[in-house]
Amino acid sequence: MSYKRILLKLSGEALMGDQNYGIDSKRLEQYALEIQRVKEQGVEIAIVIGGGNIYRGVQAEASGIDRVQGDYMGMLATVINAMAIQSALEKHGMYTRLMSGIKMEAVCEPFIRRRAVRHLEKGRIVIFGAGIGNPYFTTDSTASLRAIEVEADVVLKGTRVDGVYSADPEKDPSAVRFEKLSFDEVIQNGYSIMDMTAFTLCQENNVPIIVFDMNKPGNLERLVTGEEQVGTLIS
Ligand code: UDP
Question: Whose CA is nearest to atom 6 of ligand 1?
Fold first, then answer.
C-alpha cells in the first residue's frame, strides 16, 4: 500500500454529476463505492468536500450579499454535502464521523484534532465539514490544513481531469500530462492546482498532492495501492 492515511478532497461541483445544481444521487453512490474499495484495503480516510454545487462565497458579492456572510453560507453548503456523503458511506456499512469547523452539535462533532486522529486510528472515515470555519478560505485550504493536522500521507485532489497538463487538454491537442512535478515547477509555470494558500501549506509542510480523475472507476484504489501510476504527483 502506497499510503496509510489519505486526505481526499472532492469539489462540491463534482457532486452535481450531469445536473447544474445540487447533488446527483448516482454520483454520490459512485463515490461511496470508490471510497469503500479503498477502505477495504485498510487505508485510513479523511474527506474534505467543497460546497460549490450549492453556494460559493464569491457568488455572494455579485448578488449583493456581504462577502463574509457569503463565505459562511458557502461553509454551510459544505456541511450539506458532507452529510450527503456521510449518509451514502453509511448506507454501505462504513463507519463515519462528521466533524465541523463551525459548532453544530445537532448534526456533527466539533473539529478536535486529537479526536479526529483517534477516529482515523479506529478505522472511521472522518469527513471535515464547514471548511476551517473562517471566511476568506477555501475547502482546498481546509484539505491542506486538515491533512497536516491529522498527519495524512497525501492530499488526493479528485477532479474531472486525470492530472496536470502542460496546457488545457480540451483546447490544445499537443498538451501533455505530467506524472510528477515539484512544488516549484508548479509555481514557476503557473499551473493551477489549488489556491496559493492551500498550495503553500502543503509545500511548507512537505505534504504531497496528487491530482487525479475521481470519476474514472477504480482510479482511487489503483492510486492508493500504487499498482498503477495515476494522476500527477506534486512533491
Ligand atoms: N469557505 C470559507 N472558508 C473555508 C472553506 C470554505 O469561507 O474554510 C467558503 C468559501 O466561500 C467557498 C465556499 O465556502 O467559496 C465553498 O467552498 P469551495 O468554493 O472551496 O468549494 P469547491 O469549489 O471545492 O466546491
Answer: 138
Query: 71-82 b/e with 16+ CB inside 10 Å = b?
Result: bbbbbbbbbbbb
3 annotated as ligand-binding: no
The response to whether residue 11 sits with its C-beta less than 6 Å from ligand 1 reads yes
Ligand 1 atom index nearest CA of 71:
11
- CATH fold of the domain at 5-234: Carbamate kinase (3.40.1160)
> In degrees, to the nearest 5, what angle opens at C-alpha 93 toward C-alphas 87 and 98?
40
Model-wide pTM > 0.90: yes
- Distance from the CA of 176 to the center of ligand 1, in angstroms? 30
CA 178/CA 107 separation, integer angstroms: 41
Is 71 near ligand 1, meaning CB less than 6 Å away?
yes
216 annotated among ligand-binding-site residues: no
Taking only the tens place, the pLDDT of each residue in 163-198 is 999 998 888 989 999 999 999 999 999 998 999 999
The reply to whether ligand 1 has any atom less than 6 angstroms from the CB of 110 is: no
Give pLDDT tens digits for 62-79: 889 999 999 999 999 999
Helix extents (H) in 25-160: 25-39, 57-62, 67-91, 113-121, 139-149
